[in-house]
Amino acid sequence: MDSITSIAQTWLTDFFDSETKNEIQHLIANDSEELKERFYKNLEFGTGGMRGVMGVGTNRINRYTLGKNTQGLSNYLKKVHGNKEIKVVIAYDCRHNSDTLSKTVAEVFSANGIQVFLFSELRTTPELSFAVRHLGCDAGIVLTASHNPPEYNGYKVYWSDGCQIVPPQDGEIIAEIDSLSFEDIQFDANPDLITLIDKDVDEAFFEASLANGNFNAKGKDDFKIVFTSLHGTSITAIPEVLKRAGYNNVTVIAEQAEPNGAFPTVESPNPEEPAALAMAIAKAEEIGADMVVGTDPDSDRLGIAVRNLEGKMELLNGNQTMILMTKFLLDKYKEKGLKGNEFVASTIVSTPMMEQMAKAYGVEFKTALTGFKWIGKMIKDFPDSKFLGGGEESFGYMVGDFVRDKDAVTSTLLACEIGSDAKAEGSSFYEELINSYVSFGFYKEKLISLTKKGISGAEEIKQMLKDFKENPVETVQSSKVVWIEDYNTSLAKNVQTGEEKAIDLPKSNVLIYETEDGTRIAARPSGTEPKVKFYMSTNTTLENAADYKSVNSQLDAKLEGIVSELNL
């Protein structure tokens, strides 16, 4: 504990503001456990950049930790670009302190002689990704903690291609940051280097979103949509994009339309949680809407609810929406004539159905580690290939390559196009999903996510994953395990034959078991939250749509059996 106190005392110099110093002195005198939580480590970059609880300390988001990040990034940009004029663009979401923290970041960049484009008000993460390339910037920053609870904020770094930073750049930037002391931060802003941006970039982004997500679907006048921004940034983009695409029957949930970092009407602003969309679903039932769309605070994830076979609104999971969005894109490009260089993409913990569907269309399928930065990186790594679309199970999807991150704005438009077109043809979004199962196999997934907070939680997560690896699963619902994929060692092993194959992806803390019947179980720690996640996928054939209910029940029972076997 003495070492923690010593680290905390370094924040009592005149470099730090009086409010910060007073709080640290209070913690030293009165709350050693809280002091430990705040100073036992430095926040690190994970799959979504740096994200953490706001407050004083090295393990917290505040003007000093973000200032140090920005100083290190400034130094790195200068090393990479030399005497070239360097430009960055900064956006922020609805979270508490996002506006003031974004100004701090802009000031540090400007103090280092870097030209800054700062959005005048909150904007979506996909628009930030778009703006990096649109404005010819060398990097981009968005202040957001995505769907985390209200006490969180974060700092996501994008490179000149509009994609989040990936190795080796992330490691090089972190090394630059770690070489600094807080006193190295240059806070004295150069206002002449900070330019506020808004409507011009908005217009360009809206046009690009429409160009990629609008397929002139039939029946738009008869398609009713309920939309909620869950107090987040998508209110600045989605209603306008839908209006321009021809959707006039859009009901916005007024109680959740005003941006608010406290997220007062929901326990969690996460569209993966059914409770987050409860208000919107209730409105949809009241007015007879066809679709509900809800987005997370920075508008990169979306949740979709549609009418099921009983006519009730049902929240789909990320795998289901990803399947139908990708199929729709494949159908549209097939109508135009596929050229042979197209590809779609997903992640190692998402549904295997994506690969089966791509094979059926004769289109290449690429798989990536969890985190959308890896899908964005594919576009840069394969410049002669055309990216059509792709997503991950955690409710993220990207349409085309004009944005290099998951994009709930354009994905919302695409979902409405699918639903509107299907309804006009006497079908529905839900029925089209069932038809996909008939065509490509019925794959169903389940996610168990366990929250383990603090120092003890981090140790518990580490132990759970260690146990999962050291005590291998041998059978899953009576089906023998065939392959064990260990992404920590980059090795996949057939436990029945002894065959080994190299995994051609960067190392990652993920372990996957695959059985004889194609059932898959994956485990990994979250890169952005204090959670450990277990992903389950199973499948069977669906001979015809009429069998959907009974087969769906069988798969549900099997997934529940897997959860029971794993004691989750």
TrEMBL record:
Keyword Phosphoprotein among UniProt keywords: yes
Gene3D superfamilies to which the protein is assigned, alphabetical: Alpha-D-Glucose-1,6-Bisphosphate, subunit A, domain 3, Alpha-D-phosphohexomutase, C-terminal domain
Superkingdom per UniProt: Bacteria
Keyword field contains Magnesium: yes
One Pfam family of this chain: PGM_PMM_II
InterPro entries, A to Z: A-D-PHexomutase_a/b/a-I (IPR005844), A-D-PHexomutase_a/b/a-I/II/III (IPR016055), A-D-PHexomutase_a/b/a-II (IPR005845), A-D-PHexomutase_a/b/a-III (IPR005846), A-D-PHexomutase_C_sf (IPR036900), A-D-PHexomutase_CS (IPR016066), Alpha-D-phosphohexomutase_SF (IPR005841)
CDD domains according to UniProt: PGM2 (cd05799)
Keywords from the UniProt entry: Isomerase, Magnesium, Metal-binding, Phosphoprotein
Residue stretches making up the Alpha-D-phosphohexomutase alpha/beta/alpha domain: 44-182, 210-305, 317-437
Names of required cofactors: Mg(2+)
Family stated for the protein in its record: Belongs to the phosphohexose mutase family.
Official protein name in the record: Phospho-sugar mutase
Organism: Flagellimonas spongiicola
